[in-house]
């Protein structure tokens, strides 16, 4: 399962006028001396230090104001973000939207518009063609399925470029694609779940990890699930790793029932990747005293102490960086790239208190060691670029 399963800033106020530090002291300025002593210079020293502090503060504030002022791109640009479904139900789609806004918000003459496509994929070519007719300079799409649609309409709109986030496409000079290595992401999550389940296991010592997905798709079944199972079975060869699906990314109740069945059947840890329905999985974990590992960066704060691990694709940062390259005229089209842990595109938040306070030290050390091995290239999991339909 990947992301396709599913305004410009106000200019800052004018800087405060600089304060002169070279005004001469008036000729009639005098300091009275206390009786029987030398002139008192302490008051003057304090005054000078105060004025110097005020001047430095004013310059610093003015510099910050100038840094926040939107820049001007070399030309006026219009950028559209096209989401394959509702952004509200999929935190990863929200990250792509936020990343685009982060990049475009730095420029006063770059406009951003967001569109949500219907779930019916047969309607996507027509909708994407309509957007291209509106003369957008760049259309940001999510996933390989939308990359295919972009390829089909690009020949009709020679002035429009397409940026594919978390998808792969080649052979089209109008498309730049960047694919996240979801195998590494799922492997890490599965390995961590196996470690934690092993630690929490009873005397039988069986590693039992559940997986809750959103919609059952070929990508989820053929890329994500196998890698997560490899991770868990790296800890224990005979680990049980059953999976179940919610279907509706907003059905919290069904997600709670689905996860509850996995916990009731013996899972001590559940991986969840079910969009907004993840909160139902959190509820089931609380009921059964289980733990959850998520793929959405916001999940720690959603359920502190229940969600004890987050392995996420850094889609916001990836999108912001690529859109910024396009605005500056530095994004190479007709190219594609696959990124993973070694590229800082897949991350594990080891600093959050939900991880540090609720995961045993030995388990924390093991998952951090595995993360380093992936980052250093000691372990590799190749991500297929030709994804199943």
Describe what this molecule looks like in 3D.
The protein has 389 residues and is α/β, with parallel strands linked by helices. The protein folds into two domains: 1-13 and 73-180 and 315-342, Rossmann fold (3-Layer(aba) Sandwich); 182-313 and 359-375, Response regulator (Rossmann fold). The chain has helices spanning 42-68, 91-104, 124-133, 144-154, 182-200, 218-235, 252-264, 278-288, 299-302, 315-327, 353-356, 361-375; strands at 77-83, 110-116, 138-142, 161-165, 175-180, 209-213, 243-245, 269-273, 291-294, 307-313, 335-339, 346-348. The chain has a six-stranded parallel beta sheet with strand order 2-1-3-4-5-11, with helices on both faces. A six-stranded mixed beta sheet has the order 7-6-8-9-10-12, sandwiched between helices. Helix 5 crosses helix 6 (218-235). The radius of gyration is 27 Å and the shape is globular. The model is unreliable at 6-41 (pLDDT under 50).
């Amino acid at each position: 399962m990947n992301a396709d399963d599913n305004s410009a800033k106000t200019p800052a106020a004018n800087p405060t006028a600089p304060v002169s530090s070279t005004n001469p002291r008036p000729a009639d300025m005098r300091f009275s001396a206390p009786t029987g002593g030398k002139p008192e210079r302490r008051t003057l020293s304090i005054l000078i230090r105060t004025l110097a502090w005020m001047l430095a503060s004013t310059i610093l504030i003015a510099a910050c104001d100038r840094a926040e002022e939107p820049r001007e791109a070399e030309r006026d640009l219009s950028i559209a973000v096209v989401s394959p479904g509702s952004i509200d139900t999929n935190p990863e789609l929200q990250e792509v939207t936020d990343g685009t806004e982060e990049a475009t918000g730095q420029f006063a003459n770059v406009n951003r518009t967001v569109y949500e496509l219907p779930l019916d994929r047969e309607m996507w070519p027509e909708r994407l063609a309509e957007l291209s007719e509106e003369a957008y300079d760049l259309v940001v799409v999510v996933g390989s399925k939308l990359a295919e649609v972009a390829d089909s309409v690009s020949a009709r709109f020679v002035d429009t470029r397409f940026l594919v986030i978390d998808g792969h496409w080649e052979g089209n000079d109008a498309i730049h694609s960047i694919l996240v290595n979801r195998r590494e992401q799922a492997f890490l999550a599965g390995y961590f779940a196996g470690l934690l389940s092993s630690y929490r296991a009873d005397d039988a010592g069986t590693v039992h990890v559940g997986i809750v997905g959103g919609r059952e798709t070929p990508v989820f079944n053929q890329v994500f699930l196998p890698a997560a199972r490899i991770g868990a079975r790296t800890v224990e060869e005979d680990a049980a790793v059953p999976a179940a699906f919610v279907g509706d990314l907003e059905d919290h109740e069904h997600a709670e029932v689905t996860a509850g069945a996995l916990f009731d059947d013996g899972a001590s840890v559940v991986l969840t990747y079910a969009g907004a329905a993840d909160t139902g999985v959190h509820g089931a974990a609380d009921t059964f005293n289980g733990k959850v590992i998520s793929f959405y960066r916001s999940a720690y704060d959603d359920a502190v102490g229940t969600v004890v691990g987050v392995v996420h694709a850094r889609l916001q940062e990836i999108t912001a960086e690529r859109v910024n390259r396009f605005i500056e005229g530095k994004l190479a089209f007709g190219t594609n790239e696959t990124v993973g842990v070694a590229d800082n595109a897949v991350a594990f938040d080891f600093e959050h208190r939900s991880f540090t306070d609720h995961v045993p030290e030995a388990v924390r050390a093991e998952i951090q060691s595995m993360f380093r091995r992936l980052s250093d290239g000691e372990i590799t999991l190749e991500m297929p670029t030709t994804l199943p339909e």
